[in-house]
């Protein structure tokens, strides 16, 4: 199996951004379209930023001989469920690093509204000398030059992210991949996931 590699994820995401990736992709033999189906069922807008992250992760960790990918994050979770999964797997970090998957929290609703890949961390600072933030160079699907979700383009963007304001950083490369494939049961996880991640 392909070893977990943050750099491989970054290269894959950067390449797809340069190619202008849109939401017309599949995942080889088993395209996980359940996120689309679940969004439609609940009447929520269909966004593909999270699927872009999974596409990059899946492709960058795909082994052609075994026809499997060692990408460890479940592909059928919503943004909030992925944050809860990160909490359960103990891969949420207080500071971002290159290759992390980030989740953006909405300032009013405190729900997660966007996901992307951190290509590099450029600086850190504080809002009003109190609230810490990180300036990161990121790669995001289904956005535009302003970084807004649901805008239909893949962009490389400078983003300001803050743990104190609810944003989260998943260090997926720290997961125990059990020889390349994690053991994960969605229904069991969701039943046991009582953690509210956003403040």
Summarize this structure briefly.
The chain has 199 residues and is α+β, with helices and mostly antiparallel strands.
List the helices and strands and how they pair.
Blueprint: H1 6-18, H2 34-41, H3 49-60, E1 62-63, E2 68-69, H4 79-89, E3 92-93, E4 101-105, E5 112-127, E6 131-143, E7 153-161, E8 168-170, H5 186-192
Antiparallel strand pairs: 1-2, 3-8, 4-5, 4-8, 5-6, 6-7
Structure description:
The chain has helices at residues 6-18, 34-41, 49-60, 79-89, 186-192, and strands at residues 62-63, 68-69, 92-93, 101-105, 112-127, 131-143, 153-161, 168-170. With 199 residues, it is α+β, with helices and mostly antiparallel strands. It has one domain. A hairpin with a 6-residue loop joins strand 4 (101-105) and strand 5. The longest helix has 13 residues, at 6-18. The radius of gyration is 16 Å and the shape is globular.
Arithmetic mean pLDDT: 82
- Find the structural class using helix and strand composition: alpha+beta
Count up the domains: 1
Gyration radius, rounded: 16 Å
Query: How much strand content do the residues show?
Result: 25-35%
Order of helices and strands: HHHEEHEEEEEEH
How does the major sheet shape up? 6 strands, antiparallel
Care to count the β-strands?
8
So how many helices? 5
Helix content: 25-40%
Name the strands of the widest sheet in spatial order: 3-8-4-5-6-7
The low-confidence runs, each spanning 5 or more residues with pLDDT under 50, are: 26-44, 178-184, 193-199
Shape: globular
End-to-end distance, in Å?
Answer: 37 Å
């Amino acid at each position: 199996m392909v070893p977990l590699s943050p750099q491989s994820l970054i290269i894959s995401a950067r390449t797809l951004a340069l190619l202008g990736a849109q939401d017309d992709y599949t995942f080889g033999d088993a395209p996980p379209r359940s996120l689309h189906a679940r969004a439609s069922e609940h009447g929520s807008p269909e966004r593909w930023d999270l699927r872009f992250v999974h596409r990059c992760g899946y492709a960058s960790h795909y082994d052609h001989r075994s026809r499997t990918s060692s990408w460890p994050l479940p592909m059928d979770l919503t943004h909030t469920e992925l944050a809860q999964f990160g909490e359960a797997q103990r891969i949420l970090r207080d500071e971002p690093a290159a290759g992390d998957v980030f989740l953006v929290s909405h300032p009013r609703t405190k729900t997660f509204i966007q996901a992307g890949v951190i290509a590099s961390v450029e600086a850190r600072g504080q809002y009003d000398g109190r609230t810490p933030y990180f300036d990161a160079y990121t790669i995001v699907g289904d956005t535009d030059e302003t970084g807004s979700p649901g805008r239909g383009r893949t962009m490389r963007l400078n983003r300001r992210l803050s743990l104190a304001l609810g944003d989260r950083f998943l260090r997926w490369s720290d997961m125990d991949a059990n020889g390349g494939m994690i053991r994960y049961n969605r229904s069991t996880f969701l039943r046991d996931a009582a953690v509210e991640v956003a403040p």
